[in-house]
Specification:
Layout: H1 13-26, H2 33-40, H3 55-73, E1 75-80, E2 83-88, E3 90-92, E4 98-100, H4 101-105, H5 108-129, H6 136-143
Antiparallel strand pairs: 1-2, 3-4
Helix pairs in contact: 5-6
């Protein structure tokens, strides 16, 4: 099996995947993030450099993750033709700024960016679940985008 990473992760992907697979075998074929962090603590761990060990910097990064979570969690409820729809109230655009969904949808350029993000999300969904043949009709529709 060949492994690949979406972003730089602080260590060669092959070593990271091997370490996670080793942990999974040791932990009964599954692993939690907590177990991975514990295994990464020793400086000689192959995944040690994948983490931020400076507590101040790590705390700041954690707060940024919490802020992103907060922005993703707030939703807006719309009612159209007797149907109710719930969507995120804030979305990101290509400049990594969050804006209200209304302001993005009312701006042609931002709307086009959101549409491309939606297509990327659908392709990611397809890649994640491609082995589920029960979804083949969904994948065919995604391919037409």
């Amino acid at each position: 099996m060949k492994y690949k990473s979406k972003r730089g992760i602080g260590a060669p992907i092959g070593k990271v995947a091997a370490e996670i697979n080793r942990l999974m075998k040791r932990c009964g074929n599954s692993v939690t993030p907590e177990q991975i962090v514990k295994a990464a603590k020793p400086k000689n761990s192959p995944i040690h450099n994948c983490f931020t060990w400076d507590e101040t910097l790590a705390a700041h990064k954690c707060r940024l993750l919490e802020a992103r979570y907060l922005l993703r969690t707030v939703t807006v409820v719309y009612k159209e033709n007797e149907k109710t729809y719930t969507t995120r109230a804030f979305v990101t655009t290509n400049d990594r700024q969050y804006r209200t969904i209304e302001s993005v949808l009312s701006d042609d350029e931002l709307r086009a960016q959101l549409l491309e993000q939606a297509k990327d999300d659908l392709r990611a969904f397809k890649n994640k679940y491609y082995q589920l043949k029960e979804l083949s009709i969904v994948f065919e529709a995604i391919n037409k985008l």
